[in-house]
Design brief:
The complex is a heterodimer. Chain A is α/β, with parallel strands linked by helices. Chain A has helices spanning 48-56, 104-109, 117-130, 146-158, 176-192, 204-210; strands at 9-18, 24-33, 36-41, 63-68, 71-75, 80-81, 89-92, 164-168, 196-200, 213-218, 221-224. Chain A folds into two domains: 1-88 and 166-225, P-loop containing nucleotide triphosphate hydrolases (Rossmann fold, 3-Layer(aba) Sandwich), CATH 3.40.50.300; 98-161, no CATH class. In chain A, strand 8 (164-168), helix 5 (176-192) and strand 9 (196-200) form a beta-alpha-beta unit. Chain B has one domain (2-30, 52-216): MetI-like fold (Orthogonal Bundle). Classes of the chains: A alpha/beta, B mainly alpha.
């Protein structure tokens, strides 16, 4: 299917699960996320990560639908459930998940192996330079710091040119200077690629610097701000 | 030394075949959500608690001229399966099955699920995730499985005796030959073969521990959340 520029992400899902305190928890949202950065606020346990997992296909909602433009990724009534690996998503998880047996360069290239070797190389070079991590290319995740790993993870998600980008507190643990630098990169990236970006953060500074829109989640319900 | 070479040949063949069979079984056991999975887990573990003679007895019945395996083998190759090297291989596969599946399953299950999710969102199919993430990170488990199968088969006695008997050059393995020598009061020869088995077993187990230790060190990420 062709890539739609500026296609919004429509999410209407219901998912019941056990909450962190053992109480039943229901995520019930109906949202349209336009292209640009939408900040997702909310206290811990409000369902932000579950919502992101439902969009990515890592968690299967009981009912509802997930659509990007004309393309349906999930629709319970039509029994459509596109597998995670076919959704073309960029996702930076709350806890880092770099492949420990691969170098930084191999980690970043993991999601673009379908491209021609030349294009792969070019994209990797660009992102390594943009995130100032070129010096780490041959190191393994066990040989870099937490902040560096965070940058590598972000670079790995962006390099795939995803259709939807999900960022779950992607700047935790980074120093202010680096945050400012990455915020600048993300702004430029957002302008160049008109895709919906859901950005979970507790930081009002990050939200103000990046957010085009904002949503607050409380106890599984999403409220646009 | 012929029995020792036969044992080595048997152990290498069985270890190789068990890796091929054990990997998909272990993968399924590690990741399947089937509610009655525990039944298959129990079947896989059965040889751990079953006396080798019991397993050997059933294998012999199955491989006999009236048994299902024996009949199939006869139809395919024109001769029986019991008291042949192929029969020994088959019985050893059943006998050492848990030694392949359990370390593999344990390693597959130990791979951080976040890495599997990361692989999927980066566009990798389940097969690519298996080849590029699960298998490389489970290498210590693969080595453990291969070495345990090899060592376990090398020292096999009861099941082999039941299925293969004691035919020189065909089914007389080292452990049977040792028993044979002891019965004949030739302790010197028995001691020589026993010592070789002891050294081989010790060496391969040392290798397993060394490989696992090294792999654990190389994959440790200090910043990763526990």
């Amino acid at each position: 299917m062709g890539r739609e520029i500026g296609a919004p992400l429509q999410v209407r899902v219901r998912k019941a699960r056990q909450g962190a305190n053992g109480q039943p928890f229901v995520l019930e949202v109906a949202l349209e996320i336009p292209p640009g950065i939408t900040i997702l606020f909310g206290p811990s346990g409000a369902g932000k990560s579950t919502l992101l997992d439902c969009i990515a296909g890592l968690v299967r909602p009981e009912t509802g639908s997930v659509r990007v433009g004309q393309e349906t990724w999930f629709d319970s009534s039509a029994a459509i459930d596109i597998p995670v690996h076919q959704r073309q998503i960029g996702y930076v998880f709350q806890t880092l998940a770099l492949f420990p047996h691969l170098t930084v360069e191999e980690n970043i290239g993991y999601g673009i192996t379908r491209l021609a070797a030349r294009e792969q190389k070019q994209r990797i070079e660009e992102i390594l330079n943009a995130f100032k991590i070129g010096g780490l290319r041959t190191r393994k995740p066990g040989e870099i710091s937490g902040g560096e790993a965070q940058r590598v993870e972000l670079a790995r998600a962006l390099v795939t040119e995803p259709r939807v980008l999900l960022l779950d507190e992607p700047m935790t643990g980074l120093d202010e200077e680096l945050k400012a630098h990455i915020i600048e990169d993300l702004r430029a990236w957002r302008t160049a690629r008109q895709i919906p970006i859901l950005y979970v953060t507790h930081s009002r500074i990050e939200a103000q610097a990046l957010g085009d829109h904002a949503i607050t989640m409380r106890a599984g319900i999403a409220v646009p701000e | 030394m012929a029995p020792l070479w036969l044992s080595m040949e048997l152990a290498v063949t069985v270890a190789a075949l068990l890796l091929v069979i054990g990997v998909p079984v272990a993968y399924w056991l590690a990741f399947s959500g089937w509610r009655f999975k525990f039944l298959l887990e129990a079947v896989v573990a059965l040889p751990l608690v079953l006396p080798p003679t019991v397993l050997g007895f059933y294998a012999l019945v199955a491989m006999g001229p009236h048994g299902p395996l024996g009949k199939l083998w006869q139809a395919a190759f024109g001769h029986g399966l019991a008291f042949t090297f192929a029969g020994l291989v088959l019985a050893s596969i059943f006998y050492s099955f848990p030694f392949a599946v359990q370390p593999l399953m344990g390693s597959f299950e130990a791979v951080d699920r976040r890495l599997l999710n990361a692989s999927a969102v980066l566009g990798a199919s389940p097969w690519r995730t298996f080849c590029s993430v699960i298998l490389p990170l489970s290498l210590p488990g693969v080595v453990t499985a291969a070495v345990l199968c090899f060592a376990h088969t090398l020292g096999e006695f009861g099941a082999v005796l039941m299925v293969g008997g004691n035919l020189p050059g065909i089914t007389r393995t080292a452990s049977i030959a040792i028993y044979d020598r002891v019965q004949a009061l030739e302790y010197g020869e028995a001691n020589r073969m026993a010592l070789v088995l002891l050294v081989i077993s010790f060496s391969v187990l040392s290798l397993v521990y060394a490989v696992n230790r090294r792999a654990r060190r190389s994959l440790w990420t200090p910043w990763a959340a526990k």
